[in-house]
């Protein structure tokens, strides 16, 4: 089975190991003898339908952080609000940061 480890973009092959489960260990085994609990994995079949992609979640998190930063700085808030739409600016910041992180990972 293919799965993504939550919090990463890595897609891995895992197999269910009943013996590990019976011994009290995580039941899904990946290459290199690494074991995972089901809650640590997102099945590839479900990535698009059940859960937003890792990068999309990260963009939303950074958008919230950018919003907090801008709103906590009155001078920066005034400058941005006079010249641009605040929401557009925040999403541009978040999207740019996530795109740069994606490039670095490649």
List the helices and strands and how they pair.
Layout: E1 2-5, E2 11-16, H1 18-22, E3 28-30, E4 34-36, E5 41-43, H2 44-50, H3 54-71, H4 74-83, H5 86-105
Antiparallel strand pairs: 1-2, 1-5, 2-3, 3-4
Helix pairs in contact: 3-5
Could you please describe the fold and organization of this structure?
With 106 residues, the protein is of the alpha+beta class. Helices cover 57% and strands 18% of the residues. The chain contains five helices and five strands; from the N terminus they run ββαβββαααα. It has a five-stranded antiparallel β-sheet with strand order 4-3-2-1-5. Helix 3 (54-71) packs across helix 5 (86-105). The longest helix has 20 residues, at 86-105. The radius of gyration is 20 Å and the shape is elongated. The two termini are 24 Å apart.
């Amino acid at each position: 089975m293919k799965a993504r480890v939550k919090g990463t973009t890595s897609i891995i092959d895992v197999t269910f190991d009943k013996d590990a489960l019976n011994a009290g260990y995580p039941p899904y085994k990946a290459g290199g003898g690494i074991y995972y609990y089901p809650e640590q994995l997102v099945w590839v079949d479900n990535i698009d339908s059940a859960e937003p992609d890792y990068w999309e979640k990260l963009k939303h998190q950074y958008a919230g952080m950018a919003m907090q930063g801008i709103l906590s700085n009155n001078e920066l808030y005034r400058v941005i609000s006079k010249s641009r739409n605040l929401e557009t600016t925040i999403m541009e910041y978040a999207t740019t940061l996530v795109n740069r992180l994606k490039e670095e990972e490649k």
